[in-house]
Amino acid sequence: MELNKILNTRPSSPYWTPPPLHVHVLAERESARVVSWEFGIDSAEAKITKINKVVAITDGHTVSKVTLFEELRHKLEEKNYIIKNYYLKGDTPPLHIMVSKKTNFFKSSPVELTCEGLPEAAKALLFPSSKVVKLMEWKGVGGLLTVEGQVIQVSNVKKIRSGSGDVPLRQITLKQGDVQAHVSLWREATTETPELGANVQISHLRGSKDQLQSTGHTTIESETLWTQDG
């Protein structure tokens, strides 16, 4: 079965087992993930950090990504594989491929890369771009966003209960001209504390109803750094 069909077909029953995948690993990157935090009065420090691997795979037509948690990160390299006993996650298509200790990885014959642009698609998945927008425009733009502004409010770090344990949240307010926007910085994004009054650039944000939310790709840079880079 083609990868695209697997990702876009809802399982017919809870007992449905997805078919084996014959894929080529196009690209990979490391992804540090804090799984346990130490909370202070106004801070949060990483207590336990896992170094995972994210890979972009293809069946020659479609590109998707798979996260290999630290204990499985050695299972896939930039080669060809048959993958069995994986599972799919998600409420609506496209679904996400998930692997576990029960997943089997077998080196295989080469996958025929028939479509153009597969390496570029893999890079876009693993290293997504972030569009620079003005604060007054972000509500009308989808995808990952980068905004710039002056920090006019910084909250203390809050401890928020999530399904994977307590995680840190810091909320800041940016001002650009007469426009203000609220930004919620989660998890790793809280380890950098923007100074009150500083001009900053914050990348890879997602818009929600009335504020911007950090993602795993978010970076925060001061005006000095991002003007030098530009």
Description:
The protein is mainly beta. The chain folds into two domains: 3-126, Beta Barrel (OB fold (Dihydrolipoamide Acetyltransferase, E2P)); 131-229, OB fold (Dihydrolipoamide Acetyltransferase, E2P). It has helices at residues 3-7, 118-126, 223-229, and strands at residues 21-39, 44-58, 63-68, 80-84, 87-89, 96-98, 104-107, 131-132, 145-154, 158-162, 165-176, 179-186, 199-207, 212-214, 220-222. The strands form three sheets. A five-stranded antiparallel beta sheet has the order 3-2-1-4-7, covered by helices on one side. A five-stranded mixed barrel has the order 9-11-12-14-13.
Notable traits:
230 residues; OB fold (Dihydrolipoamide Acetyltransferase, E2P); five-stranded antiparallel sheet; five-stranded mixed β-barrel; 15 strands; 9% helix
Q: Any idea of the CATH class of the largest domain?
A: Mainly Beta
- Give the overall shape, derived from the CA principal axes: globular
* Tally of separate domains: 2
- Count the E strands: 15
Distance between the termini: 46 Å
